[in-house]
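We emphasize that the prediction below concerns an isolated chain of 81 residues; any contacts that depend on oligomerization or on bound cofactors are therefore not represented. The input was used exactly as deposited, without trimming of termini.
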Amino acid sequence: MMSISVADKNRLTVRGVQNGARYLVKREATGWWIEPVPPSKRGRRRVAAATQDLTDHLEALRSVGFSFEPEKKESVPPCRF
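Result of the prediction step, given as a token string:
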């Protein structure tokens, strides 16, 4: 059996465990083994800097005929609770 657990020193005291850290808990024939969760193998995506400003995109849309209109304000009915 294997599971990932978050350390909580208020419930169980295990020497060397940091409160709030994630650990991999394994049950084997010789006993229980607790080790830190290995780092993720997937790398995080980095967001590239924008090549154009948003106003450039909006101007391109406006040149094709797309227009923005302000949203109409609707009255909200009173809460019945």
